[in-house]
Amino acid sequence: MWFWIMLRIVLSPILYLVWLPKNSGMRNVPLRGPALLVSNHLSFADHFFGPLPLMRPILFIGKREYFTGKGIKGLISKGFFTGVGVVPVDRTGGSAAEAALETGLRILREGKLLGIYPEGTRAPDNRLYRGKTGVARLALASRVPVIPMAMINTFELMPPGQALPNLRPRPGVRFGKPLDFSEYYGQEDDREVLRKVTDQIMMAVRELSGQEYVDRYAADVKAELSGRAPRPSSDDDGDDD
């Protein structure tokens, strides 16, 4: 919460003055009550420019490892991810997917905005990758509005591995109209339904972002590019960032 307050009071004027972000669709996000915001994930800069135009903070689900590091680096990591609204997943007694689902449902039951990156990690390039079905499970189990959200130009603004952002191009975020999945309520354990709902959400994000779509998991592509074998993962794993 403190980061969101700082973003509004201190960083917001600076971000608008320096980068002139071009945002749209904010009226599609409810002013109160729960909603699931589903976004592409292009850059570290998404943490700043995504929530920027909203009058409410967005909470995200993240790995507990972000909060358990040792020394100065660990303190910095914990402080930053706490500040940007990342809620650690408690994996005690269950899988990462189930822990992420329970954490997400708890946030939504509290009437808050929950953000999720269904690609599971930052994209290795400027394309949109296959979504993991955890987003569909959350949408059907919570029965809250599902709002597609597209980050624009943040990949060019701050490419992977770059410590500081460029001054151009103009970044931005677009919020689409809420998606209705009420016909699938009660079917959150049906894998075919989960894949169908996930793909519909990803296509809505694609329409907003204009990205090329790749029907592969981003984590697998990143592993290949780095010369590593793709690690086994569940289709509904939580975010890796």
Description:
The structure is a single chain. This protein is an alpha/beta fold and 241 residues long. The protein has a single domain (1-11, 23-226), classed as 3-Layer(aba) Sandwich (Glycerol-3-phosphate (1)-acyltransferase). Helix content is 37%, strand content 13%. It is built from 8 helices and 8 strands, in the order H-E-H-E-H-E-H-E-E-H-E-H-E-H-E-H. The strands form 2 sheets. The protein has a 6-stranded mixed sheet. It has a two-stranded parallel sheet with strand order 5-8. The model has no long low-confidence stretch (mean pLDDT 88). GO terms for molecular function: 1-acylglycerol-3-phosphate O-acyltransferase activity.
Helix and strand arrangement:
Elements: H1 2-19, E1 35-39, H2 46-49, E2 58-62, H3 71-83, E3 86-88, H4 96-109, E4 113-116, E5 128-129, H5 134-142, E6 146-152, H6 154-157, E7 172-175, H7 191-209, E8 213-214, H8 218-225
Keywords: Acyltransferase, Transferase
Protein name: 1-acyl-sn-glycerol-3-phosphate acyltransferase
GO molecular function: 1-acylglycerol-3-phosphate O-acyltransferase activity
Number of structurally distinct domains: 1
Major sheet: arrangement of strands: 3-2-4-1-6-7
Based on CA atoms alone, the radius of gyration comes out at: 17 Å
In whole angstroms, the N-to-C terminal distance is 20 Å
- What is the overall pLDDT average? 88
CATH topology: Glycerol-3-phosphate (1)-acyltransferase
Strand content: 5-15%
Q: So how many helices?
A: 8
CATH top level label:
Alpha Beta
Shape: globular
Low-confidence stretches: none
Helical residues, percent:
25-40%
CATH architectural type: 3-Layer(aba) Sandwich
Question: Topology as H/E string?
Answer: HEHEHEHEEHEHEHEH
